Amino acid sequence: MARAPVGVGPLPAEMRAVVHHEFGPPDVLVPARLPVPQPGPSEVVLRVLAAAVDYAQLHIRRGGSGRVGSTREPAYGIGEPPYVRGGSVCGEVVAVGSNVSGVTLGSWHLVGGLRPGAYVEYGVVNASALRRPYPNRPGPTAVPDGLSPAEIAAFDYAPVAYHTLRVAAGLTEGETVLLHAAAGGTGILAVQLAKAFGARVIATAGGDAKTSLVRSLGADVVIDYRAEDFVSAVLKTTDGRGVDVVWESVGSDVFTRSLDCLAEAGRLVSFGSNSFTGEGTVDFYPFWTKNISLIGWGGANNAEAHAPEIMADLLRLVAAGELRPVVARLLPLEEAAEAHRMIEAREAAGKVVLAPDVKVATTSRRSRYRAGPARRNPAPV
User: Fold this and answer.
1) Domain 158-299, classified CATH 3.40.50.720, yes or no
2) Structure confidence by residue, pLDDT tens digits, 94-117
3) Looking at the domain covering 6-155+325-361, what would its CATH class be?
4) Could you give phi then psi for residue 13, rounded to 5 degrees?
């Protein structure tokens, strides 16, 4: 006989959310009330403690595709309105379906793919997304100890920063890397990771506040792209040699001109287009003359970025004090439009995060989701 769903308490009938009924500027995002989702037999309900605001969601809100998924990850299709923007959340498991085991009520997870989205109080996800493939190693949704929910949400792209630098671009100790958009939520993590890998870091950011922040995180050279030409600055600080790796997610002219910054056998890893163009002109001549490489990142790479060994190293770096996210602004859920506006205006130094309850989002505790043996649901079955 199938058992009923189990939870830490009864779920409310309705929840606060932010939706949009059309595509356009940030002000299409409006507060709304939606039914609280109930878990299917193999699903879990998460209470959203904090939600990261990512560029992909800005793309989709404007009517773009966000990014192109591969056949190995969920489709990024757009259904019928009202639309709820997605992204990663720090969520607490509050209910599980009748067939769910191996997921602990009350555990925290950093996870994407919630339904109906991330800008809500509650969302559902397949339980398989939360389970650890290996009992004694951290799973893809593991969260670092000692961080608040807002900081955990701001950690969402740490696996991406790690994989793009260490695995895709093959950054090694002693090499020099150019990091674009280094004051963004992901860029801040990339600066710290590149230093942890033993690289010399040249970083770009715009304005005094952002350049000061990036410098404080350990960047060796910080270029204010608003005040000087980044290509000239890179070549000057490397005595004309260029860099071994360019880490690039801006696109457009920044992508094109970054090829001029590469040293012999240099690598450029491209993993986004925050200029909203999705385009960049490629001159193949330096590929032939300098033996440089262009590396695309996305699709199935996202699953590879959450491999146990990468997650374990990320948790270790946080515990050692070598890696920490920066929350630029924490806003109430209903201010999602303002969050999107800030990011599009490039006003934020760090990650912009939304929270249904700001007080809860700033309260840290030791995670209940450990790297040790997985625990079955303690509730009666």
Assistant:
1) yes
2) 999 999 999 999 999 999 999 999
3) alpha beta
4) -80, -35
